[in-house]
Amino acid sequence: MSVIMMSVTEAKQRFTEIVKRTQEVFDRILVTRNGKEAAVVMSAEEYESLLETIDVLGSKAEIRALAAASMQARKGDTISLEVYRSQKKSAGKKRSRR
């Protein structure tokens, strides 16, 4: 992933290529007009991810949860992915018996 600067004129000429690069390599294209930054072209997937990040960071509850999880990780209070999956699978079986 990289940021590529180009003028509006060049972006118009290479638009199909730009869209392809943003989808395949997650490049961001910074489009300039008269030498000044005017717009950014990025993949829809990256855009959605950015919006989700903004939503998370805008929520005090999410920030507290992230801070708590970070503290747990620093203390070594973690489990392996295999253990997590095993626990989740067991919990699912217990619920389905009811």
CATH superfamily of the largest domain: YefM-like domain
What is the CATH class name of the largest domain? Answer: Alpha Beta
Q: Give the second-level CATH assignment, the architecture of the largest domain.
A: 3-Layer(aba) Sandwich
- The Cα radius of gyration reads 22 Å
Question: What percent of residues are in strands?
Answer: 15-25%
Strand order of the largest sheet: 1-2-3
Distance linking N and C termini: 49 Å
Based on Cα principal axes, name the global outline.
Answer: elongated
The computed structural class is alpha+beta
Integer tally of domains: 2
What is the overall number of helices? 5
- Average pLDDT taken over every residue: 91
Query: Which regions are unreliable across 5 or more consecutive residues at pLDDT < 50?
Result: none
At the third CATH level, what is the topology name of the largest domain? Answer: YefM-like fold
Series of H and E elements: EHHEEHHH
Fraction of helical residues? 55-70%
**Major β-sheet profile:** 3 strands, mixed
Q: How many beta-strand runs?
A: 3
